[in-house]
Amino acid sequence: MVKDLQQLSLAEAGKLKLNLSPVNLNELIDKVCHNFKWLAEEKGIMLHHDHIPNNCSPRIDADRMTQVFVNLIGNALRHTPSGGKVEVSVQQQGDLVLIRVADTGPGIPAEKLPHIFDRFYKADASRSRSESGTGLGLSIAKGYIEAHGGVITVESQVGRGTVFLITIPVK
Ligand SMILES: Nc1ncnc2c1ncn2[C@@H]1O[C@H](COP(=O)(O)OP(=O)(O)O)[C@@H](O)[C@H]1O
Ligand SMILES: [Mg+2]
Fold it and tell me: Domains along the chain?
């Protein structure tokens, strides 16, 4: 966690050194989803990543972006109840890549949404530390995406689900 905080501080200061190279997003997302397959099956959740263009290879830091996906998909799987769905999709629009991680979980109340990218913020205070993470995952995701010159946003509806949207330049 100390390492996470260091990375986060560097990212927020705009001083994070990224290891940029063209990375096939389809392959990267496929790998992450493959690693979550057991958890999705155990929880009875459909984890989909269909129709991801195979020629979409933005210059990104593969390790950092993997960490972002692990957190977003891990969060989605943790919050979504059995019978639900988690969907990852990618679209290229001109010089931008749009990435979407959507779930059919409980959603996040509107008053909590503005805080979920804050350090150590956990929307569900009753959740024990061991059951979930440290509350750093989304702030790190935001730091890493912004270090790539990108943007991460969230849309959520209580009772329906949550969508995280990432936009990064192709470069
Ligand atoms: N997909 C989601 N559905 C519902 N709540 C979410 C989702 N993703 C994140 N959250 C809320 O945002 C908080 C912060 O997420 P994060 O920074 O990844 O911390 P952590 O996963 O360690 O709790 C979570 O504790 C949870 O309350
Ligand atoms: Mg998390």
Answer: 2-169 (3.30.565.10)
